[in-house]
Structures are given as structure tokens and as C-alpha cells.
Amino acid sequence: MNGLRLYLLRHGAPETPGLLMGRTDGMPMAAGIAACVEQAIGLDVQAVVTSGLTRAARAGVAIGSALGLPVTIDARWRELDFGAWDGLASAQVEREALARFWEDPDANPPPGGECWSALVVRVAEAIADLGDTPTLVVTHGGAMRAALAHLCGFGPAQLWAIDLPYGALLSLNLWPGVPPSGQIAGLRA
User: Fold this and answer.
1) Which of 122, 124, 110, 135 is nearest to 22 (CA)?
2) Alpha helices in 68-165 (DSSP H)
3) Is-above-0.85 flag for pTM?
4) What's the distance, CA 94 to chain centroid?
């Protein structure tokens, strides 16, 4: 039985790291793009998909060029919308509100922002539409965690315990007939 190989790559470092950058678009650093391309070289993929946000899309286009593959932009892979917190450093957000969010992101979304479950649903739909082609998705830390929530059944405590630095690469095998929460993931940073 062959599984679908899915790679999830977090975009490289943006020019302004450390912010809650959901819908806020930021320019990636050239070194961040290069780090993403380096992660992708040698992967056995036949498709490259990227979030439409510049910090991911620039890396996706560079990877597509390096691998000789077309790049598809899929907005469902964008980061969680942090609403009123978007573009702020964590220290600028009310400490108790941020703690409630990290503890239960669905029950305590950012003011005017997206519920965690909405992110998980859109990422799950994007995964379902990938088909059976080995694919590299250049995306964001929140979308990668949403994929793990959907595919592996991880809750917030497990998801926040996974370190996904800029340029982190997740390698997943999606097995046919196995429910999403039964999939296994591997991490290569």
C-alpha cells in the first residue's frame, strides 16, 4: 500500500519576525527564501502549492523554479487571521487574552479574528483537494499545525509543543483508507 507523500514547509524568516502575522503580509528575507529552497532540493515532489501571502509565495515560486515545477497558489493555506492582534508582537496583546487563546484557540479567538476550527476546516479542504500527487506546500506555522490537528488529531497542547521555526519541514505520509486522525507525521527542521 502506497501513501501520498505530503511536505509542509513553513516560509522563511520575514523582514519583521516575531509578530502575529496572519493576514498581515510581510516581505521575506532573501536568506529565508534561500533556506526554503535548500529544504526543498532533493524532495520527491511533483507539485508545489503555496499560500498567496508574499512571505510564503516568494519561497514557493523560488522552489518551483529550482525544481522545474509550476506553482499553484491556494489561499486556504494562509495563516490564521489574528483580527485585532494581526501584525502585533505578543507583548502588545493583553496577556490574559493571549493565554486564553493559546489554551483554547477555538473558544477564545483573537478579537475580530478567525476561529481555530475555521482554519482547520479550510486546511482540511485544501488537503482533500491535493489528489494523489506528491506535493510540497509552502505555508505558515498555524496552517501546518491545523494540518496536524486534522490529520493526527493533535490538540492545542500537542500542537504548541511542536517547534516550527521558519523554514521547518514536515514530511507526512497520508495512507489511503486511514481516517485523518490516524495519520503519522515526521518533522525535519
Assistant:
1) 110
2) 95-103, 116-128, 141-152, 156-161
3) yes
4) 25
3-state secondary structure of 69: coil
Residue 3 pLDDT: 73
Residues of the chain with pLDDT under 70: 1-2, 177-189
Residues spanned by the domain of 145: 4-188
pLDDT given at position 177:
66
d(CA 163, CA 32): 17
pLDDT of residue 131: 85
Report how many domains make up the chain: 1
Cα(163)–Cα(180) distance, rounded to whole angstroms? 22
Q: How far apart are the first and last CA of the chain?
A: 27
131: left (phi over 0), alpha (psi -120 to 50) or beta: left
* Residue partners of 156: CB distance under 8 A and separation at least 6: 102, 103, 104, 105, 116
CATH code where residue 126 lies: 3.40.50.1240
